[in-house]
Amino acid sequence: MQRSGGIVGNSGQPWVLRRVRLTWLSFMLFFILVFFPLIAHYYLTTIDEAGGPDKRIFGPRPGAELCEAKHVQDLCRIRESVSEELLQLEAKRQELNGEIARLNLRIEACKRSIDSAKQDLLQLKNVISQTEHSYKELMAQNQPKLSLPVRLLPDKDDPGYPPPKSAQSCRLHTCFDYARCPLTSGFPVYVYDTGSYPWGEKLDPLVKQAFASSVKSSVYVTDNPNIACLYIVLVGEIQESPSSPPASPLDLEKQLKALPYWRLDGHNHLLVHLSRKSLTQNFLYNVSTGRAAVAQSTFFERQYREGFDMVVSPLVHALSEPNFLEVPPQVPVKRKYLFTFQGEKVESLRSSLLEAPPQSFEEEMEGDPPADYDDRIIGTLKAVQDSHLDQVLVEFTCKNQPKQSLPTEWALCGEREDRLEVLKVSTFALVISPGDGQLVASAGCSMRLFEALEVGAIPVVLGDHTKLPYHHLIRWSEAVIMVPKPRITELHFLLRSISDNDLLAMRRQGRFLWETYFSTSESIFSTILASVRTSIQIPAAPIREEPAQEIPHKAGKLAGTDANMADNGDLDLGPVEVEPPYASPRFLRNFTYTAADVYRTWNRAPGPFHLFPHTPLDPVLPSEAKFLGSGTGFRPIGGGSGGSGKEFQAALGGNVPREQFTVVMLTYEREEVLMNSLERLNGLPYLNKVVVVWNSPKPPSEDLLWPDIGLPIV
Q: What residues does the Exostosin GT47 domain cover (predicted)?
C-alpha cells in the first residue's frame, strides 16, 4: 500500500511541475507579446526627449527639417525657383508699365506734330496749286498751242537748179529738193505709168505686174504729180530680145529728159531697177542721170553715190508670196553642215553692160586691178573639207550649166529649189564677193544672201567692200558675218567660236529682216519708199483703218468672282478713278520720230503686246511697223502724250492724268490664259476697251464664256 501510495505521490509531483512550467511559459509569452512592445514603444518615444531636439529620430519634426528627404528637397527647390521667377516677372511688369507710360507721352507728342504737319502740307498744297496756275499762265503766254502749218505746194513752173559739177557729187543736200517734201506733206509719191516712156514696153512682164500691184497697195502713192514729193520710174528689168537691141546710153539720157516731170535735171526722181536674174542688166552704167537717184542691185564703185543711190534687193518672189509653212524652224541651232558653198567662176562670160566708148568694162578693170584671193579661198575651203574636222560642203564646179553672171563673180549652180534644200541643212552659207573690187554690189551676191536668210542659214560674206541692201539703215552685223577675204585662213576658227545663243539671235534677226523687208514685192516697194522717207526725215503716214471680222462671243460670269483670281499680283493697279475721262491730245512727237529713232524701226521687232492711247485721232505710227509674237498679256509702249491712270501717267510723263487707253492682246490657242488675263483687267483705271486679236485659223470654242469686266471686249 505504501508502495502504491508512494507511487501515486511520486507520479503526481511531475504533473504538477509540468503544469507549473506550462503556466510560467504562458505568462512569459504573454509578457513578451504584450508588455515588451509597450515598453519598447515607450522607450523609443522617450529617446528623443532624453537626447534633446537635435537628436530626435522618430518624434515629430518642424517643417524646415522635412526638406532633408530627397523628394521633399526637389519640391522645395521648385518652390524657390518659382518664387524667383515671380519676382522677376513683377519687376518686368513694372518696367513695361513705365515704358508704356513713356510711349503714350510720345504718341501724344507725335499726334500734335502730325496735326502741325497737316497744316503745313495744306499750306504747301495751296502754294503748289498757285504755282501751277501761274506756270500754266506763263506757258500759255510764252508757248501758245500751235496748229499744223499750212501745207506748201510746190510751184508748177519749177525752174530747177544748176546741174551738179559731176555725177559723183550728188548727195541729198545738193541734189534733192526738200521744198517739195514738207514735214506735213504725208510723203506723196507719183509713179510713172510704164506706157508713158519708150522702154516701158520692153520691161519684164512679171516685174511690171508685181510693181503695179505693189503701187496699188501703197498709202503714199498719189495720182496728182503737182504735189508729189518723189517721182518713181521703173527702168528694169528689161526683157532680152534679139529683135530689139538695147538703146545706147545717149538715147537713154534723151528718153529720161523727155519725161514730163523731169524738169531738166531729174531732181526728186528715183530710177528703180528690180532684178529677177543673177546676171542683171546694168544699162544705166555710163548714163548721166542728173539729180535723179538710182535704186538697183548692181553697182560699180564709180557709179554708186554714197548716201544718195540705194542698193536694193532683187525681186525673188515676183507674183507669189513665199510659203511660210515650208520655212524651216529656228532650232536646232547646229545643222548638218557647218557651212556650204556651191558656185562656179566663169571667166569667159562677158558683161551685159552697155557702155559708150572708150569707157569699157575691161578698161575699167585695167585702171585698178584688185587683188584676187579666189585661189587662196578655194585651197583653204578644200583643206577644211578634207580635214573632216567638221562636215562642210564646198563645190566649185556646177553639176549642171551654171547661171549667167558678171565677170569675176561666182555663178549660181542649179535651180533655186535645189539650192534651198542644201541651205536648209547648213548652219552658215558662204557668199563670196566678186573678185573685182570695183563691183561693190551685185544681184548674184544678193540672191545668195536672201536665199540664206529665207531658210535660216547665217550668211557669211567674204569681202568687206560689198555694199549690202540698205546698209545705211539696217544693221547687218546683227544677222550677217562680214569677213575680209585675207582672213579666209581664219574663217573655220571664227565660225566654230560663235556660241549657240549668238547663232540663234542672228538667225532670228535674219528671219525678221527677210520677212519684213524683202520677202514679197509689196515689202520690197514699201522698203524702198521707207528708205527715202527716213533719209529725208518725214514721219510715216497713219496706218489705214481696215475693218476686221469680229468674232461673236458671249460674256459669262462677272470678273473677280473666281476665288483663284483674288490675287492679281502686279496687275492690281488700285481702284477705279472717279474723274471723268477725256480724249488724248494729238501725238505731236511723230514729227521728230524719224530723227530720233532712225534705227529702232528697222532693227528691233516690236513686242507682242501694246497699249495705245484712246483718242478720236488715231496715233500716227510707222506704217512699216509689224506686230509680231503670240501670247496674252499687255505692256505699255510709248504712244500718246500723257498716261493712263495714276501708274501709267506717272510712267509716261504725268501731264495728262485722266487719259484713257486701249489694251490690245494677241492670242493663239491659249483660251484659259487669255480669260485669266482679261479678268485681271477688271477695275483697271482709265481702261476704255480691250481688243483681242485672234491669231488662229480656228475660231474660239462655242462654249467659251468671256469674262464681264464692265467694258467692251472686241
A: 185-498
Which pLDDT score is estimated for 605? 36
Cα 320 to its chain centre, rounded Å, is: 30
Read off the pLDDT of residues 307-319 as tens digits, 9 standing for 90 and up. 899 999 998 876 6
Mean pLDDT of 465-477: 92
Helix (H, G, I), strand (E, B) or coil at 390: coil
Beta bridge partners of 368: none
Cis upstream peptide for 149 (omega within 30°): no
Give the position of cell 550728188: 170
Q: Higher pLDDT residue, 381 or 141?
A: 381
CA–CA gap between residue 193 and residue 234 (Å, rounded): 9
Q: What is the pLDDT of residues 125-135, one digit of tens each?
A: 999 989 988 88
Beta-carbon neighbour count of residue 209 at 10 Å?
14
Q: What is the DSSP letter of 32?
A: I
Could you tell me which residues come within 8 angstroms of residue 462 by beta carbon, excluding any fewer than 6 positions away? 377, 430, 431, 432, 433, 483, 484, 485, 488, 491
Mean residue pLDDT of the chain comes to 77
Alpha-carbon distances, residue 228 vs 231, 233, 256, 259, 643 (angstroms)? 7, 13, 18, 15, 37
Contact 521, 211 (CB under 8 A): yes
DSSP, collapsed to helix, strand or coil, labels residue 585 as coil
> 140-149: long-range contacts (C-beta < 8 A, 24 or more apart)?
148/184, 149/182, 149/183, 149/184
Greater pLDDT, 375 or 116: 116
Q: How far is CA 251 from CA 232, 248, 355, 362, 476, in A?
A: 20, 5, 12, 23, 38
User: Which grid coordinates are listed for 98?
Assistant: 513705365
**Phi, psi dihedrals of residue 554, rounded to the nearest 5°:** -120, 140
The length of the chain is 714
CA distance 123 to 117: 10
pLDDT at 385: 94
Closest CA to 171 of 450, 536, 713: 536
CB 633 within 8 A of CB 674: no
Checking if the pLDDT of 568 tops 60, the result is no
Structural contact between residues 442 and 406, judged by C-beta atoms closer than 8 angstroms: yes
Q: Do the Cβ atoms of 314 and 384 come closer than 8 Å?
A: no
pLDDT digits 0-9 by tens, 599-633: 443 333 333 333 333 332 233 333 333 322 222 33
